[in-house]
Specification:
With about 230 residues, the chain is of the alpha+beta class. It is built from 5 helices and 15 strands. The protein has a 7-stranded antiparallel β-sheet. Strands 3, 6, 9, 10, 12 and 13 form a 6-stranded antiparallel β-sheet that branches. The longest helix has 25 residues. It starts with 8 loop residues before the first helix and ends in a 6-residue tail after the last strand.
């Protein structure tokens, strides 16, 4: 299980409030990245495969893991959730949203399952040359944990070129702002599922967020997505 203790969550929160995202450096080892990427053809550990072009999502494909999740995926979900829940609760307070998230991920998952959201959402994504992921939000139901994490499993410039992780932010009555996130193999990026608070002259207001992946120019790109709410 990757060690989360070196992560400076205060600094991560500051970055997320300033830029809408934060990079968690070197969370996964090269061996862990390789093992996860190499597991993509093993359909026994997945519940569903999505070909993006069939749905207008982009080009490339991804697969949702089935329960029980692989040990490393389960471990990441459990270990990342508590510090992110503290940030999520702070954000909801700033945005005037009454929802609060429990300290432990299992308690939040029980909330999801009680509402019929019982299908796991962590996923592996696979892109080849020419593939991309359109800007989107990962909602899945009425219970939505407002932060998620994506881990890059291949090394840019060596295993693939292009394929940058992209965030866009739409503030009220302003043009959209884009953030291109420079990830290396084993890095994770924390970002909002749909919105975040921004402080203005009259207090905090909500801005709408979307994320995607630019066109892969060459090679093959794999990503692990950790989403904390389950799907209907």
């Amino acid at each position: 299980m990757p060690d989360m203790s070196p992560i400076d969550w205060t600094a991560a929160q500051t970055e997320m409030e300033a830029f809408g995202c934060s990079i968690l450096r070197n969370v996964l080892s090269r061996a862990e990245c390789t093992a996860l990427a190499d597991s993509y053809p093993d359909d026994t550990i997945f519940r569903k495969r999505i070909v993006m072009a069939r749905h207008g999502f982009g080009q490339g494909e991804y697969k949702y893991f089935s329960y029980p999740l692989p040990e490393i995926v389960h471990g990441l979900r459990e270990a990342l959730y508590p510090p992110l829940a503290r940030i999520a609760n702070r954000w909801n307070e700033q945005m005037g949203i009454d929802i609060r998230y429990p300290d432990a991920h299992q308690a939040f998952i029980e909330r999801c399952h009680a509402a019929g959201q019982d299908r796991p959402t962590p996923l592996l994504l696979e892109y080849g040359a020419g593939d991309y992921n359109c800007l989107h939000q990962d909602i899945y139901g009425i219970h939505v944990f407002p932060l998620q994490v994506a881990f890059l499993l291949k090394e840019p410039g060596t295993d693939f070129t292009g394929g940058e992780f992209v965030l866009t932010e739409q503030r009220p009555r302003m043009q959209s702002r884009a953030e291109v996130v420079p990830l290396r193999q084993g890095d994770g990026v924390v970002f909002p599922v749909s919105q975040r608070p921004v402080k203005g002259s009259r207090g905090y207001y909500r801005v709408n967020m979307r994320h995607g992946v630019s066109r892969v120019c060459s090679g093959q790109r794999h990503t692990l997505g950790i989403i904390f709410h389950d799907s209907k």
